Structure formats: structure tokens, C-alpha cells
Amino acid sequence: MNQHIQDKYPPGSRPRIHYIPYLIFVSYIVSFIGAFTTVELLHRRQSGNTWRSWVQLGACSVSFGLVAIWCMHFVGNRAIVLGDGENEIQLYYNATFTAVSAILPIVVIFLGLLAADRFYKNNKHTAIRHVALLICGICAGAAVTEMHYLGNKGTTNYHLDNDIKFIVGAASIAVVDCVIAFGLFFHWSGHWMDNIWRRLLVACFLAVAVSGMHWTAAAGTAYEITGYHTGSGQARNVNLIIATCLCLSACMVCFAMGFLKQVHKRKLRDRAEQVVLAVAMFDSDGKLLVTPAGLMPCQTITRQFHQRTFDEDFDIRHPVFQWLFRVSRNWSGTIDLIPSMREHLLHTGFLQPGTPVIGGANRVSIGAEEDSKSSYSAIFREMFCVSAQDIARSMEVRLQDLGHLYENVETTGTLLNARTLFLNAQGKPILAADIAGQTDLEAGLANPIIFGRGQMLVLTRKVGAFEASRLQNIGFRFASMEQIGDHLARSLQISRDDLDRLIGRLQTSCVRDALIPRKGTYLASFLLQPSPVLQGLDVIVQRLLPDRLPMVKLANDELTQREVKLLSTFNGCTLEDCLMRIDRHSGSVTGDDIFLDKFRNKIIELFQQVPEPALRQAYFSAQQLDIAHGVTGHNDPLQSTIFAFCGIKEIYNQTLQSPTLRCVPLSFLRANLRTYTGSPDHALLAHKTHKEFGSLHSTTMDPGSPTSRKSPKWTTLFRTSTVASSSSATVVTDSSSEKGLVNLAPSFDGMATAAVASHPFGGIMVSQDVVISEDREGKGGVDLELRDWGVRSVAGVADAEQVTMVDRLMGITTGFRDLQGSKLLGKDGRR
What we know:
Radius of gyration: 37 Å
Number of domains: 3
Number of strands: 23
Shape: elongated
Structural class: alpha+beta
Distance between the termini: 128 Å
Largest sheet: 6 strands, mixed
């Protein structure tokens, strides 16, 4: 030991102190890096009681306790120079205290963050939330304070004398700044304000809490020499080197999270251009279920739905969508097929192994090389079912409880297209959205300018308090649109107004009344309108109730025979004729007249719901129809019946008179009527689905079948075994469960198609297409009429689904039109 050092700095003396300025700045940067890493990890973690959530919370604690506090402390202490900088009298530390000072703050911060996570995020009581936030801030401030003094306690050659006033001041700075920082973070994260500048501000406050506490405490600390260091002076740099390595590790974590953030944003943009399946669940307060990232649980079905023709759109008119719509209302008929569907998709290369569950996009697009229309349809339907099960597993719910498919295909990725500039006739730039708003819908263009880049199918459901609490415990959140609206709109690349309207429609569909009333007699409007894109017939319905006909209740129970007989006298009369005939009988007080007055009031009420001029000329049908087909007797719980006014609008008038009305395809309304609870068509569709996909999978998994997507496997997907016979020909059956969703054979007399006894799956189904055309040769202008262009027989073995109320009303409407046409021919003698 150098005697000069002992004489200059005798034991018990207090050497003068000075600081290295740039190391003070570096210590703050180190603290900021650790704090920012902590904020980023907190921002991306999943709430709940899962092991992953605990690991992520532990990582946040390690980042803040080890990097932001521990590293900053030793980097900052390296800036303290005692005496004239002699190595023998500088600060050196005990390894045990150093290790304990690194572990203890991690534990304390973990407890504080755990309290905030459990009691702040998922609690509706303001007082409890504030207390949880205060506990988190106190724990964080206490971790900073105890680490500082415990680390200083490990000094081997000094006794540290701390002023109590500086201890209180330093601790106060740490606690107050931590409360402010975590308060801002949890407030902003609760509103999903995904802005990096806000997270940087929170990190700055945390770094100020650590650095401010450290240097305030250092200012009130006096160093008394108790010994001298005899080793190498490089020993004092060990903690500095460790701190530097940990800081660099934190930087690498930040860069990795930034890279993953960009990848995630790119996936969101790509997803807005794909066909995805999303889940919209609402709690009792109307809040939407979202992931910790503020997005709806979703899964990519395929990158693009391949349209084979220019006039083929994937919408509610498409048979594939109607199949998905019906299956989602009876998952029990398909759930046992999903494992084989997944195996088939993996076998054919359309599903890649290791696909992420939430937000996965590892799907292969169904391209044009799949030239078999039935195989193309089957692959897409398989992807839908597999995606739905993946989401159900991630949410830990049964597939049957995931929800029902919403009655529309939502368009995403329209935001950029809506801002696209076009040139008008004068050469001035205008927005595409403005062109769309000025386009005349009667011209037959459904989506004239704005085409969305992606499509979204949505499963909707309303959950109770217990289910909502369970979902929150596994990491999901329920949020209002004020909290997540802007963020969710950006992810879908749609405008905020469009998103608000969409969420409103989804929420309304969850609380909608039953599709078919249990009992009562109703008066309905069955008003047809030719599709503006000439793709069949549409039915005018109420905008908020697109799954049923507009109707008013005529009686709470069944009508008496006398009342039914009175209504039969109006059969074939128009709505105006019915009102005129009732007015001529008004004035008396008999039971018949009282019923007729009620009938007139209900007609007026129905016209108020559907204020269409064509309804005035609609014909009344006195045939009493069951709303729910398949009713076997009066013991059936669904005994409601209807009488209807049937009519068809002119093709040149596509405008509806009321904003509360809309048009839905006739085929979609028919599919809706096959989805009520207890419908016999559920079992028939499940039987067809098993028959179709069972044969597809057994053929595909044949050891002799090829496995490459480029090989001609689609020529063997629907192979059927043939038996050579010299006296009979083999009929190749079409077992697609998608068939029959549209253009079913309407047996209007109520007779079911007879089954072929020799085949276990049913009989031969024959369908008749009714085509609407314009008679341009008539002299009285454009006249819309129904023409039978012959019977087109589709031979195939299929189960015979019963005719629905819509099928019967369609037959009645056709009959009235034919009868009116015959009367007109009889008057003028011309064909």
C-alpha cells in the first residue's frame, strides 16, 4: 500500500467529490433504454392468468429492475470520482450485495405491475383502479430507492452517511414520477392509443424517476474511507461492463420489437386485402371483444376469393356464402368433419403447418388452376371451418359457442381506394368516393367505382357476465368504440364512419328477436324486385330485419274458421281493392265487420312499414301458410302463420321509398328460413356435408393420389367407383352440400319429393328455373313478366329439403301473374 495515499486520505476522512459529466448523461440514456424496453413489453403483453402472461410480466420487471435501475445505478456511480482520482480510494462493491440489489427490485416491480394488471384493467370501480395504480407507482418507486441504497451498502472501502432529508426527497421523486408514468401508460393503453410518442413520454418519466432519485440521493451522501483497494484498478469497471452488455441487450430487444411491429403492420395491411374470418362478441354493456392489440380476433381464410367471371361476386347471393351461413347456425352437424378437413388442407398444400392461431395469414390462395368448380368451393368451405375452429381454440370456447355468421360480406381495404383521384370530363381531379356518390344505382351498377381490396366474414355473439369475465381472464378485453375505433379502422383500412356503422349493425344482429315467432297470425308483404345487376330476384325487407318478411300481427292466436272464410273472399284482390271493399262494409257492429276493421288497420300498418307504390297493386293471398316449414302438428312450438300481399316491382324502378327498407336476394331469404332452431333442414344439410366431404377426403387420402398442388389431383378428387355392366349405365352422383341452396325445386302443393328406395341417400331431384326477361316487343312499354322457359332437369342423388314459406309465396305470386296475364289476353284476344 502506498504510504502517500494513507497519509493523504487517512481512515475516517471524507475525500472531495467531483463528477464526469458525460457519464451522467450516459447513465440517463441507459435508464431511458431500460424504461422504453419496459414500456414496449408492457404495450405488447397479453393480460390474463396464462403462463405466457406471467412470463411477459416477468420480462417487464427484469427490463425495468435490471436495466433501467441497476445498470443506471452503476453507470451513474462510475461518474463519481473521489479525491484526485486515485484507484486505491475509488468505489468498489461487494459481489453479494450487488447480486441481491439486482434481484430485489425485480421482485418488487413484478408485484406492483401484477397489482395494476389485475385490479386496474379489469375493474369498473374507480377507487379500486386508483388504489391499484398507486400501489404500482409506490412499488416501482420503492424498487428504485431500495436498489440505490442496497447497492451502495455493498461498497467495500467506504462508509456512506446519508442525510434523511435527501432520502425522503429522493424517494418522493421516485414514487411521484413512477405514479405519473404508469398512470399515463395504463390510461393510454386502456384507450388503445397506439402512438410511439406517448410511449416515449412514459419512458422519459420513468427514466427521470430513476435518475432523479439517484442523483438526489447521491447529493445527500457523504463517503468516509474505511479501507483501501489493493488490486487492479480495472475491477471498478466490471459492473460498468455488465451494465453496458445489459443495455445493449435491451437495445437489441427494442430493435427486434420495432421490426416485429413493422411486420405486424404489414400483415394488417395485407389482411385488409384478404378474405378473413373475424369474431365480434359484445358484453352486456355493448363493448366489443378485442385482443390486447385492440383488434377483433380474426383468422385469414384465404388471400383472395377467386371470381371465375366478371359478374360473380362473393356476397350473400353466392351459394358458398349461403352454405357458410347455414353451417354457422348448426356447427354440431359439421364439427366432427373439421379434423379431416384440416388434414385434407395440409395434404393438398392449402394450409401450411404451424399457422398462427390469431391473425394467422399462412394460407395459400385458391388460384385459377383449380378448374373444378366443386373442388374450388369445397376447399374454401374447408378453410372457413378450420379457421373458425382455430379461433374457437384460441378463445377457449366451443365452436358451437363462437357465434353465427353475420348476414353480409364486409369489404375492407377501401380507405386508399376512396382517396384515389380521377379526372372528370373537364379534366379536373375528383375523388373516387365522390364519383360513387353521384352514380345512379338504377343504372345497374352495385359498386360502380370503389372496390374493396379484401373481404371480411364476421361471426357475432353476445355473451353474459360470466363468459365476459372468463374471456378477460385469458387475456382478451372488452372496449368501447371511443377507445379502439380509430385503431381498428386503420387496421381494416376503412373509414371511422363505416366502422361505426358496421359495429352498430353487428351489435343489432346479436340482440335481434327470434327469426320465426312462436305463435300468432301475421299479415306480411312479399314484394319482389328484379336485381339491378340482373342476377335474379330480390325481396324487399326491413333494413334492421333482413332475415324475415315485413309483417304485422293480425291475431295473437289462430284465426277462427269464420275469419279465415272472410279473408278468402279477398283472395286475388289488390291492396287498394281490399281497402275499398272493406270501406263499403263499414258502419255496422257485427263480429265480421269488427274483424274487417281490424284487417283494414293492419293493412294500413303494413303499408306504413313498406310504403312502396307496388304494394298497392300487390295481390292478397288467402292461403294461410306456416312460417316455419316442417311443422307436424299443433304440439310444435312454432305455430305462427301468415297471409301475404304478393307483388313484383317494375324492373326500371330500383329506388326504394323508405330508408328503412332494403333488398335481399330471394335465395338468401330462403336460406334464412332453413336456419331456425329445430329446422329439419339442419339434419339434411349435415347429411349432405358428410356425404360430400367424406367422399372427398377418402379419395384424396388414397395412397395412390398425388400430393403436389401442381399435379393433376383435382381430376381425381371426386372419383366414383363404376361397375361394368352390359345392361345399365352408371350415374355419377353430385354430392356437393352447396347444391340446393339456390333454385330448389319448389313443390308448392306441399308434397315432398319421393325417395328412391334403392339408394340410401334419397331420390332424384328435379329443379325448374323461372327466368325474368323484358318483353321489348310489346307496344305498351316495358312490361315485366314471368316466363317459363322450360324445365331443366338436374339429375343427382340428393336429400329432398322441404319447401319453405318463400317458395310457396313465389309460387303464389307466379300464379297471380299468370292469372292476370290470362285475363288481359282474354280481353284483347292477343298473345
